[in-house]
Amino acid sequence: MLLDLIKGFLIGICASAPLGPIAIFVIQKSLSEGHKAGFLTGLGACLVDTVFSIVAIFALAYVQKFLDENTIMILLVGGLVVACMGGAMTFGDPFRKMTPDNSRTYSIRDFLKAVVMGVSNPGAILVIFALFAFFGIEFEHHDFRIAPMILSVSAGAAFYWFLFSGLFSHIRKNFKLNTILWINRIAGIIVLIIGLSLVAEGVIKLIFLK
Fold first, then answer.
1. 98-140 tens-digit pLDDT
2. Which pTM does this prediction carry?
3. Of the candidates 122, 148, 114, 149, the residue with the CA atom closest to the CA atom of residue 11
4. What whole-number distance in Å separates Cα of residue 72 and Cα of residue 17?
5. C-alpha angle with apex 130: 129 to 133, nearest 5 degrees?
6. Cα 57 to chain center, whole Å?
């Protein structure tokens, strides 16, 4: 049982590690608003990984069929959502909500944005499936170990985002506000490009696979 929990913890860390739009968003929030804002944003990704883990255990075959049948829609809609968020990061002012004494702010909206980013990425759930297969995780639906496994995956993801956001929150002290603003814009451009790439992939599939 302990081995399964360790595997679940590692799955949570590994699922969070790839540098994608959520990680860039967490970096931006951590640099501009501090550890709490970055960690809260990361918890949105943690929630998505937890849900995907539940799906991986109970409904792998059904989800794979849904992904196969709706790949184009997921790419188009998900890409547009990510692109819009990237545009908002690029042209927005990350400091406009900060109080005059430069106190750190954080919002549940950042958490929800990360959730939307995670759900709109069809590759994320495939990563979870691959990690479960790699670590040899396989349960029957009535297995009592399922709940602890899911919690351990969630704990691993939360642990990763806590350290990740803490690191960038710490180094923010070495940056001037103008530097952080440009980092925010660059991060937004990267997220925007990722979103547009997803849309382009969806359009290509729509044209050539129809």
1. 444 444 455 788 888 888 888 877 667 767 777 777 777 766 6
2. 0.69
3. 149
4. 26
5. 90
6. 20
- CA angle (154 as vertex; 150, 156 as ends), nearest 5: 115
- DSSP character at residue 103: -
Phi, psi of 108 (to 5 degrees): -65, -20
CA distance to 39, 124, 185, per residue, from 93 (Å) = 20, 29, 9
- Reading the block at residue 144, the tokens are 């009592």
Which stretches within 17-107 are classed as H helix? 21-33, 35-58, 60-69, 71-91
What CA–CA distance (Å, rounded) separates 178 from 175? 8
Closest CA to 131 of 9, 34, 45, 22: 9
Cα 34 to chain centroid distance, Å, stands at: 18
Give the separation between CA 5 and CA 179, rounded to whole angstroms: 41
Terminal alpha carbon distance of the chain: 48
Could you tell me if 80 and 88 are in contact, meaning their C-beta atoms sit under 8 angstroms apart? no
